[in-house]
Amino acid sequence: MSAQTNGIPQGSALMDFIAEMVLGYADHELTLKLEKLGIQNYQILRYRDDYRIFINNPQDGEQILKAITEILIGLGLKLNPSKTTLSNQVIQGSIKIDKLHWIVQKQSAKNLQKHLLIIHDHAFQFPNSGSVVVALSSYYKRIVGFKKISESLMPLISIVVDIAYHSPRTYPIVSAILSKLISLLDNEEIKNDVIGKVKKRFNQLPNIRTYANMVAACFSTICKNIFL
């Protein structure tokens, strides 16, 4: 057909509905395909027609990408190679660049998660800097008196851990923030599980022996504060 275009039209509620039906079917087919391939350790988020794939094994990522490509081709769709990228920055990579930029610019209307994302963005540009420590100290002062936080705690904990992972200088203030956030989790089992995951994350650090004493001291503080 002359002047035919391929893709999902935008700006229409009807097109949004049709697109969700088509891509919902693609999601179902992808789940079945990955089950047959024996791939289990993954998470996929889809924002309409934009996929975010989280994997621990790069080979699994390649197979998932291949599976998505094959399924979309069968529906007359295809991935845009120029927008298909690989990143080992989980926090940065999970949010579309334009949305992250907008969040950072809208500092006057920030909830706790947006506040942390602003700090994370700064820490990503200036790792291990004194200004990151100052920003985290301000964040701690904001939450220290809270008895309850209505926002989901796990994303907040994940962002704080990622900041510390790339900025060892922040360990002391991060330990205080994590102590507060983890103390607000529902029960002891969840708290222990989160602390274990945080420790596992830091065990992945290169030259971990260099930071071992500092990490141990920080997490000793966390555990002491939480379980007193």
Automatic annotation (TrEMBL):
Protein name: Reverse transcriptase domain-containing protein
Limits of the Reverse transcriptase domain: 1-104
A Pfam family matched in the record: RVT_1
Biological source species: Candidatus Nitrotoga arctica
Source taxonomy: Bacteria, Pseudomonadati, Pseudomonadota, Betaproteobacteria, Nitrosomonadales
Signal sequence extent: none
Classification via PROSITE patterns: RT_POL
